[in-house]
Amino acid sequence: MARESLEKSKIKFLLLEGVHPSAVETLRQSGYENVELHQKALPPEELKSAIASAHFVGIRSRSQLTEEVFEAAKKLVAVGCFCIGTNQVDLAAATKRGIAVFNAPFSNTRSVAELVIAEAILLLRGVAEKNAAAHRGQWRKSAANSFEIRGKKLGIIGYGNIGMQLGVIAESLGMQVQFYDVVNKLPLGNARQVPSLNQLLAQSDVVSLHVPETKATQNMIGAEQIAQMPNGAILINASRGTVVDIDALAESLREGRLAGAAIDVFPVEPRSNDDEFVSPLREFDNTILTPHIGGSTVEAQENIGMEVAEKLARYSDTGTTISAVNMPEVALPEHGKSHRLLHIHHNVPGVMSAINTIFSENHINVSAQFLQTNEQVGYVVIDLDAGYSDLALEKLAAVDGTIRTRVLF
Ligand SMILES: NC(=O)c1ccc[n+]([C@@H]2O[C@H](COP(=O)([O-])OP(=O)(O)OC[C@H]3O[C@@H](n4cnc5c(N)ncnc54)[C@H](O)[C@@H]3O)[C@@H](O)[C@H]2O)c1
Ligand SMILES: O=C(O)CC[C@@H](O)C(=O)O
Question: Could you tell me the fold of the domain covering 330-408?
Answer without folding.
Answer: Alpha-Beta Plaits (3.30.70)
